[in-house]
Amino acid sequence: MHALLPTTATLPLFDIAASRRIEARALVHSPDLMERAGLAVAKLALALRRGDGPVWVVCGPGNNGGDGRIAARRLAEAGVAAHVGHAAPERPSLVIDALLGLGLSRPPNAEMLATMAAMQACSAPILAVDLPSGLLADTGQPAGERAVRADHTLVLLTRKPGLFTGEGRAHAGRLWFDDLRVAPDEAPTADLLGPAAQPHRSPTSHKGSHGQVLVVGGAPGMQGAARLAARAALACGAGRVYLDLLNSRPDEATDPGQPELMRGTPAELPNALGVIGCGAGPAIAHALPALLQQLPRLVIDADALNAIAADPSLQGLLRGRPASATLLTPHPLEAARLLGLDTAGVQADRLRAAQELAGRLGCTVVLKGSGSVIASPDERPAICASGGPALATAGSGDVLAGWLGGLWAQQPGASAHRIACAGVDAHGRAGEVDGVLRASDLIARLPDGR
Ligand SMILES: NC(=O)C1=CN([C@@H]2O[C@H](COP(=O)(O)OP(=O)(O)OC[C@H]3O[C@@H](n4cnc5c(N)ncnc54)[C@H](O)[C@@H]3O)[C@@H](O)[C@H]2O)[C@@H](O)CC1
Predict the structure, then answer these.
(1) Annotated binding residue 437
(2) Is 208 annotated for ligand binding?
(3) How far is the CA of 216 from the centre of ligand 1 (A)?
(4) CA of residue 66 to ligand 1 center, whole Å
(5) Which atom of ligand 1 is nearest to the CA of 157?
(6) Which ranges in the chain are annotated with CATH 3.40.50.10260?
(7) Annotated binding-site residue? 134
(8) 112 lines ligand 1 (CB under 6 A)
(9) Cβ of 46 below 6 Å from ligand 1
(10) From the DSSP assignment, how many helices (H) and strands (E) are in the chain?
(11) Pick from 38-52, 204-218, 348-362, 400-414: least confident
(12) Measured between alpha carbons, how far is 393 from 436 in angstroms, rounded to an integer?
């Protein structure tokens, strides 16, 4: 058993159907899986309990409850009082939530909800078995009006996608994992990202070796967004970074605080990597047909995404671009506009929404939000395990777009999917701070792109 985050390598995720198949095959050779699960829960419970009070074990009707009952027996064998039932004992030292796991199949009924509320009202920490009760393993959404908010979750046998995206991170608390000594014997449903290797930078390289980035955006009043993207691309190690500020005055400075940035236009830089849309406003719509047809690689963000959502002819141009030439970075509302849904419809199944969008538009898609999802046609989707609330700040998306552009400019042979996985994970790790973070400070915290 070990802590799951931060990841040190890319890890396999398995949805409910795959987890069931792996479990069924493993049970043939290892019929004692539930004993192993219960023992693992009891061991972690011993380490986590606060004080000398009894451990309250809340067991449901299925095998998740079975794990809980075995854990209670193991705790009793270790000399710790374990109270199994739906009513709290006096001053519990820990709550074990073994009400519902992988088998959650419908919104919890009133009785279940009342038990979940009682667990939540209890002052003891909550250790969830496999999944916080009420949370759907495939999507990370509560099945009904509430899911348990655990302090710790011990994930068993397989890592489930819903623990890492949507509401998963907010409900699971600290994540632990025990594979029950079973090696998965089929391909994962998705990848949980680990840190990417830094690309090689030759000692004989010069600025021309590290690519050109052209940031198009920053309409009057919103230049900061484009400047943040350009600064991020520069900090990432791109050889030359140019800004095309939309509707700007000819004498307007590119970026007074960043003298390395230059002015440029798509016509002057036909081979540059384009980062388009940050702070662009509606003006980007006029520039988009040429950008979509001329620039060989594009990172498309913000207002450019909204313009594409509103115009089927732009969607056609996007679909006509070569494979792996375009990377979209929508937040859930932008993704909803592109898919013709509302935000709740996207958030209900983030993996599916990102895959649907990638398939429809023939692009790599980074669906931002807690547990960003990266999806591309013909690639296994990935979920980003890094990041936190400090990233919920103005400009952090612009920094991501610029960072992705800077990474991609330096690695012209890399697929959009690979760049998205590397950049999103680095951005998330840089944003893991307590308290608040300004987007400019986020740039300073990102590792350089080498
Ligand atoms: N089978 C095994 O040997 C193993 C099982 N494991 C555990 O087993 C769990 C999966 O067990 P199950 O498949 O039995 O599923 P669960 O125990 O998660 O739940 C299934 C039961 O809950 C009921 N139920 C579903 N949704 C409900 C709702 N909203 N309100 C009320 N009742 C509801 C179902 O009718 C069924 O009786 C895993 O999450 C894990 O904890 C693991 O320990 C690995 C080994």
Answers:
(1) no
(2) no
(3) 51
(4) 8
(5) 44
(6) 2-189
(7) no
(8) yes
(9) no
(10) 15, 18
(11) 204-218
(12) 8
Tokens found for residue 258 = 């960043």
pLDDT computed for residue 182 by the predictor: 97
What angle, rounded to 10 degrees, do the helices at 284-294 and 302-310 form? 90
CA of 63 to the centre of ligand 1 (A): 5
Establish whether residue 102 lines the binding site of ligand 1, counting it when its CB lies within 6 angstroms of any ligand atom: yes
Which pTM value belongs to this model? 0.96
Nearest ligand 1 atom to alpha carbon 37: 43
407-425: pLDDT as tens digits: 999 999 999 999 999 999 9
The whole-angstrom separation of Cα 394 and Cα 366 is: 18
Average pLDDT, the chain: 95
Which of 278, 272, 266 is CA-nearest to residue 306? Answer: 278
Q: For the chain, what percent of residues have pLDDT higher than 90?
A: 92
Q: How far apart are the CA of 29 and the centre of ligand 1, in A?
A: 21
Interface predicted TM-score (ipTM) of this complex, two decimals: 0.97
Confirm if 162 and 136 have CB atoms less than 8 A apart. Answer: yes
Q: What is the pLDDT of residues 6-32, one digit of tens each?
A: 999 999 999 999 999 999 999 999 999
Indicate which atom in ligand 1 lies nearest the CA of residue 100. 18
CATH superfamily, domain at 207-445: Ribokinase (3.40.1190.20)
User: 2-189: what fold?
Assistant: Rossmann fold (3.40.50)
Residue 161 exposed, middle or buried by CB count within 10 Å (0-12, 13-18, 19+): buried
Domain with CATH 3.40.1190.20 in the chain: 207-445
